[in-house]
Amino acid sequence: MNKPQRFFQYSAIGLAISSVFSTPSVALAQNSSDNQIETIEITATRRSGTVQDAPLNITALTPDTLAEQNIADLEDVARWVPGLTVIDQGGRNTSPIVVRGLNTNNLGPGPEGGTVATYVGEIPLLVNMRLNDIERVEVLIGPQGTLYGAGTLGGAIRYISKQVELDLTEGQISGDLFSLSQSDSLGGEGGFVFNTPLINDELGIRVSLNKLHNPGFIDYNYLVKESGVSLADPDWSNPAEVEQNIYQKKDLNSEDTLTTKMALRWMPNENLDATLSYFYQKQEFGARSIVHNDALAVNNPLSELVGEYESAYRYEEPREVEDSLLSLEIKADLGFADLVSATGKSEHEGDGSRDQSDLLIGLGFGYEEFPAFSSYSRDTEQADIFTQEVRLVSTNDSALSWIAGAYYYKVDSSEISEEFTPGFDEFALNDWQTGGNLRPDSLEYYSVTYIQSTEKALFGELSYQFSAKFDVTLGVRFYQYDVAVQSAVDFPLLYTSIDIEDGADDFRSGDEILFDLVDVADEDEGSLLKLNASYQFSDDVLAYATISEGFRIGGANSVGACDPNAANDAQQVCALPFEQTYAADTTVNYELGFKSAWLRNKFHFNGALFNVDWKDAQVAGSTQNGLQPITRNAGTANAKGIEISTRAIMTDALTAYATYAFTQAELTKDVLGLFGNGDGDGAADNDGDIDALSGDRLPGSAEHQLSFGIKYSTEVWDGKSLDIVYGLTSQSDVITQIGNRESGESLGGYSLSNISASIAENSWTATFYVSNLFDKYAYTSARTNKGNIGLATAPDVNTNGFEISRSYGHYLATPRKVGVKFSYDFEL
Question: 552 near 585, Cβ under 8 Å?
Fold first, then answer.
């Protein structure tokens, strides 16, 4: 069964290697134009260089590529970078970022965000930035622990904003008007950029502002009119009863994003360059981009009603996110070296609501006996981050060069989660005769977590050029981190309205919340190494070999410790000793790669073979007591494969580019009790401890990933330039759980096509474009797993018609988007 796949692997590898030493197509060879492929400058190595000269696997997307393929955010970027996957979840939640298949968690909201570090300039900041006024996006594939530190198990992504020009007053005005095939209203985006010197050649300022309105395309047609009063599951065959209890909202998964950047640059002389920058982004989401088509039990009446672009959630689930960054970057020429200082202070705030009905019904605590039961949550988080990095980069012309630096990173964050069950306290008092009190705020669950994390590091790289062709670099990073967590959980409604112990008469009154904060801490230290050797076979062919390590800090779970003196039958929501902390996980990457240019720089062909070992992988798990979400460590995994990127000028009018990646990622050790359904004793017995086995495929990314773009350029209408661009991105299937165990599934592969036509003259450009040209209906991710399709309770329990099947659903690719955009550049 595996022979065709293996043949494909070996053929792809052989093609990549042989293509370096073979002659490209005749069409290319016959091209005698003087046009050459543009040189893309990068700073990912902490030195200025180019993509073709850098001995590492890096993709840099320039403004031209971003505009041609209508790339606006990180999900779009990933489709054009071999080896990078961003699991598109519609923006409301942080989309998991996966590099080279390094992912162990399911595809629910935000399960995996820490294997890739994202940077805004020199400052680490986890944000999906709207890509306006961007010089380029640099994506480093493979562990980058030496120069970039924690979180770079798989790689690093850098947003490089356009620099303040000190001798030029310029600006741009842009706009975009578009429609979605499944939306009832139009969307739009508009922005401006303005740059001007304040003191010519010494002080300047650059400001940009961008506003996006995405109208949404998923209808929420099964929303509860009044919590605790309306029936969440009325008789769906009775229009009058449905009308009495349910309301509808069209295109609810809308997005409104405001992005602004301001930068003040001071360059008093050629030896000092300082930039003070401020970035702010506010995002407002109407709901999740999840549909319940083909995600409900067959005996659920809604299964016959929910359409392809409909969600069955009972609540709207809005969310608001704000991110800001104030940074100061200073570069000073000391003669023997450049001194670089990067200081950043960032803030993050999030506030959202979720439909919590399915979770509570599934616990079997009797909520389903209340006919008008439904529940919603409010979740808030806040984080303050301070970053400081100082480094020296040698500038001498000798064979020996070096980088040395120090790094400090501190995070103070808090998370609060509240669950509300309107009307349930009154039902319990009247029907269960508990003897308790009404809970005026309907607060059923309250949890709070405070986390303080500090990372310190010293790092450096030493390079020696043994000859004009042969270069070796050795890097090292020494790190130390501390994590302190305070957390607590309370069940206010339980202790106010319901008698949980025989004879208890000490019910709370009013809206009291009582809890004791529990302290848990963890710390660790270690080192990371990097060895890189490169050989310049000719001016146009570079080969390199790399061994590099990456890591992610460990920490403490935000669940209180279990009471060791509690009775065996006591109900606790707590963490056992082995569930309270988790260790750092690490990767070791072995890579062979090459960069090549042919036909007088008209054809680029780059490739890499890689093998990554992952140790102590951090995965999402749950506690034995209360099934609270925690992070734990789960053995070892491995990823291996090939990544290829090409670019060609075929004629004066025709250019093309393409990428391909093959990744085989799997566990290399059994995982015990991963989904919290075993006894946690670690034994390979029959009690359900073993959830995944060595050789199981890792979830979240496709084994095959392909992109292809082609551009035709000509002149029309008295010298106006016309560009016609076509783009294709394609991927094979993705699984949602390790080895598709524990009710996992395969999400089918799909391809998306984009096409655009741009006309430009002097300072203005107008573009007509279509994204998802063929209106492909595709699942990009899943929430929970297929095990949640079933009914909530046992047959002998009165469910009052409740069906627990709405927590499982699929995230959708954006349907066909047709738009017209323009830009006007000016100089004063």
Answer: yes
